[in-house]
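Assess the record.
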Amino acid sequence: MKTEYYLIKSDILPEVFTKVMEVKRLLGLGKATSVNQAVKMVDLSRSAYYKYKDSILPFYETSRGKLVTVIFMVEDFPGILSGIVNALADANANILTINQNIPINGLADVSIVIETDKLNTELEYLLTDIERIPGVRSYKILARE
């Protein structure tokens, strides 16, 4: 039987699936040191977690091994682009293109296309870390191939 995959908004999923994802997130971020601790934190049974953990993946994990175009909104000051590039390099992202628009009102859009096949972290965590860089206001995934 052929396995089919669907992209579904999280707000329509049964609660058990969103809790499984929360357990995975807690474990991935190190906020829980064990499955037992994480399932207690989200009020989910261990059996439910183990039943569904391999059947649901975050949207970002579908990007592994692909090209991803990300647009960052950044403040206009020296070194901001360097911080982003260094974070991408630390995560083993292969940068294919970078395009920075001229700043308007102190903000600029930076478009970066990366290959994700050799990432040493999840794309979601990488982008969250980059968003924490002083001067990075936001990001948006524009495209995936």
The chain has five helices and four strands. The chain has two domains: 10-56, 62-144. Residues 10-56 form one domain.
